[in-house]
Design a protein that fits this description.
Low-confidence stretches: 1-40
Distance between the termini: 39 Å
Structural class: mainly beta
Strand content: 35-45%
CATH class of the domain at 9-27 and 45-310: Mainly Beta
Shape: elongated
Mean pLDDT: 90
CATH topology of the domain at 9-27 and 45-310: Jelly Rolls
Number of strands: 42
CATH architecture of the domain at 9-27 and 45-310: Sandwich
Radius of gyration: 28 Å
Largest sheet: 9 strands, mixed
Number of helices: 2
């Protein structure tokens, strides 16, 4: 139940959540080299899976915290605001549990608040959204110790949004919660005081879809919830128990929790205890699995004695310059040549600024006012590219700009002088990399965490001409600087249509991959529209920073040559990056289309182009498209910067605006109609880049 209700009020204690991961299919057994039987050896777990069979020594076992679990302590609801006791969480041997050991949650009371102890364990970070949730749970109808005939205990398995203390009711507008709750002695429905099993899906406090039946569930049961394309289904022991209307499906990442507590307190004078046990928990983000699929996966893990695995990536907000978990927008602005009174030491200096549009911390997707993050009256000029990434790993996005000065300062006759300047979040600008003999053929520049170490690296696409292209990377160091250029791929016969390079995690393994959009024009085209394709370069899964050979992820021999931007983002919240294409038909006619990543993790776009938005009267001044999670719901939105010029302007500076396209909250991959998130009728026309 929602945090402010009597049934679930104290769940506001929860912060964000992380967990472990499981396996999507039964691992292949490996034959033992001797005659003695040996446990099956599991295959490497697929991406996006959690499994834990709770083989720990106690609540203070370092492995428990290392695996992403938090044991609740302190006081507060739900229930009588009694103490949550770490000592009430244990891991006893249990021959009836599939793995021979179980997590035990014990709720104890003597009928008073001071004499009541409740138990809860939850994941420490929120990263679970679409996919399959399952647990093997043992419910009890009678107190384990003492006479509990007057008690109203609750034994639960649920997932819930993180707690935001700064928000009303501690909930974002996308609040989500999915509950399995067993009441062995009733307590919510006084007309039916017997045992009842409840499933509840929430759209917000006081807005839920509850299904309950009066029945005993004494013993072991498999509880399962699937969330996919806005549909939520609850299962009990392999059969569908309830399906929630689309309105009640989750809209943001959640954590996974178990707790045992009392609705109220009765019968003072004697102590009694109630136990709930959990044999294993499992999650898979790739699909709404069938109960038999879950059984196959968990049996494979148990048979191979795999006690814990977690390959579920944590959602991160791109371009989060403030570190609050919500994406922001940065604008690189060129005011023009520096004023002579500035006394700039170099010739050709430009007055440049970096402005920020920070998302408001209310999780509505709105943007605050424009702030000046950096101002340089003697800047190096207008860069060739900019890219946003967390280069020093401090949890805040930085900005990097690539400058090509040509022969000025070059140390070789056939090269050019190139510099990368970095604006670390909250720190002065600095030179992060420089070469006086690199070349002038850099075609694209982007950032991503190619090694999966929490720091962004840089990728450069270099075009030698005549169809010869090369991919190079610069690995970041802990200080936010970069090492030397590393060639990753070279093709001498690619074609002359290299157009866009974008970075995203297309296979969901937690490391950033690259997508390369090529427009071949009429070569291979089946119509006058032309031939276009996207190839993906997946990062080495071991974290070496290298890339596998390109794979054709999408192709059309009759699409059209009007694509003006390609950006990456997880628009459906499945932890795998998709692509968005901005297409300019001309005369103010624009379209947004998406390519959805294969949920199986192949780093291809199997569903084909899907139109998401179209307008015939926008304006011809559209400039930039960027991606970010502006409402903090774990799904990527889009921001479109438009320069209207003098139309609607109140000064000679001109009229500019940013519109945001919010991802459908239910994870369908659709985009909601654009909303004007920022506007100025007197800003200026010098915006050169948007990230």
């Amino acid at each position: 139940m929602p945090r402010i209700s009597a049934r679930r009020a104290g769940l506001a204690w929860l912060a964000t959540a992380l967990l472990a991961a499981g396996l999507a299919s039964a691992p292949a057994a490996t034959a033992a080299p001797t005659a003695a039987a040996a446990p099956a050896v599991p295959a490497a777990p697929p991406n996006g899976v959690l499994f834990d069979d709770f083989h720990y020594t106690g609540p203070d076992d370092p492995a428990l915290a290392a695996h992403g679990w938090t044991v609740r302590t302190g006081t507060g609801g739900p229930g009588p605001a009694a103490k949550w006791d770490a000592a009430a969480v244990s891991f006893p041997s249990d021959p009836t549990a599939p793995g021979g050991q179980a997590l035990q949650l014990r709720a104890t009371t003597d009928g008073t608040v001071d004499g009541t102890r409740q138990a809860q364990i939850n994941t420490a970070q929120s990263k679970f959204y679409a996919g399959t949730y399952a647990a093997r749970v043992h419910f009890t109808d009678q107190a384990t110790v003492g006479d509990g005939s007057t008690d109203h205990p609750v034994q639960s398995f649920y997932s819930i949004s993180p707690f935001h203390q700064n928000l009303p009711n501690a909930e974002t507008p996308q609040y989500s919660e999915l509950d399995h709750e067993y009441l062995p002695h009733g307590g919510w429905d006084q007309a039916n005081p017997g045992a009842s099993y409840n499933t509840t899906a929430y759209h917000g406090s006081g807005d839920d879809n509850n299904v309950h039946t009066g029945r005993s569930l004494q013993g072991w049961h498999t509880l399962q919830t699937t969330v996919w394309n806005g549909t939520t289904t609850f299962y009990l022991d392999g059969s569908v128990y309830s399906t929630a209307p689309a309105r009640y499906s989750p809209r943001e990442p959640m954590n996974i929790d178990f707790n045992a507590w009392f609705i109220d307190l009765n019968s003072t004078g004697h102590a009694r205890s109630w136990d709930e046990r959990i044999a294993w928990v499992y999650y898979n983000d790739s699909a709404a699995l069938s109960p038999s699929d879950v059984t196959t996966a968990t049996n494979g893990l148990l048979d191979s004695q795999t006690h814990f695995v977690d390959t579920v990536p944590k959602p991160t907000a791109p371009n989060d310059h403030t570190g609050d978990g919500i994406s922001d927008i940065s604008l690189f602005y060129d005011h023009g040549p520096s004023d002579p009174v500035a006394g700039c030491p170099q010739s050709g200096a430009e007055h440049t600024s970096v402005f920020g549009l920070a998302a408001l911390p209310d999780y509505t997707g709105a943007l605050g006012g424009l702030t000046n993050r950096s101002d340089d009256p003697c800047g190096l000029g207008r860069p060739k590219f900019t890219a946003s990434g967390d280069f020093d790993g401090d949890g805040k996005a930085d900005l990097a700009a690539f400058y090509d000065f040509g022969t000025v300062g070059a140390s070789c006759t056939d090269g050019s002088h190139t510099v990368i300047v970095e604006w670390p979040a909250g720190k002065p600008a600095r030179t992060a990399w420089e070469s006086t003999c690199f070349g002038s053929g850099t075609k694209a520049f982007t950032a991503g965490d190619f090694r999966g170490n929490g720091r962004s690296d840089l990728a450069l696409l270099y075009d030698y001409g005549a169809g010869h292209v090369r991919l190079l990377t610069l690995a970041s160091d802990p200080a936010g600087g970069f090492g030397g250029l590393v060639p990753q791929w070279d093709a001498s016969g690619w074609g002359t249509g290299a157009k866009f390079l974008t970075a995203g995690d297309y296979n969901g393994d937690g490391k950033t991959d690259l997508a390369f959009f090529t427009d071949y024009g009429s070569v291979g085209a089946t119509c006058t529209g032309g031939h276009q394709a996207v190839h993906t370069f997946t990062a080495d899964p071991s974290g070496s920073g290298t890339f596998r050979a390109p794979v054709k992820a999408w192709e059309s021999t009759c699409f059209g040559g009007g694509t003006t931007a390609v950006v990456s983002g997880d628009f459906n919240g499945d932890t795998k990056s998709d692509l968005a294409l901005l297409y300019d038909h001309g005369a103010g006619h624009l379209s947004l289309l998406t390519l959805t990543a294969d949920p199986g993790g192949s780093a291809t776009f199997v569903s084909g182009l899907v139109p998401r938005w179209e307008t015939f009267g926008w304006t011809t001044g559209t400039r930039f498209l960027t991606a970010g999670d502006y409402n903090g719901d774990g799904k990527t939105d889009l921001a479109l910067f438009t320069d209207y010029g003098s139309v609607g302007a109140t000064c000679t500076g001109g009229h500019q605006a940013v519109h945001t396209f919010t991802a459908d909250p239910y994870g369908t991959g659709a985009l909601q109609p654009p909303v004007k998130a920022w506007e100025s009728t007197c800003f200026g026309g010098g915006t050169a880049f948007l990230n």
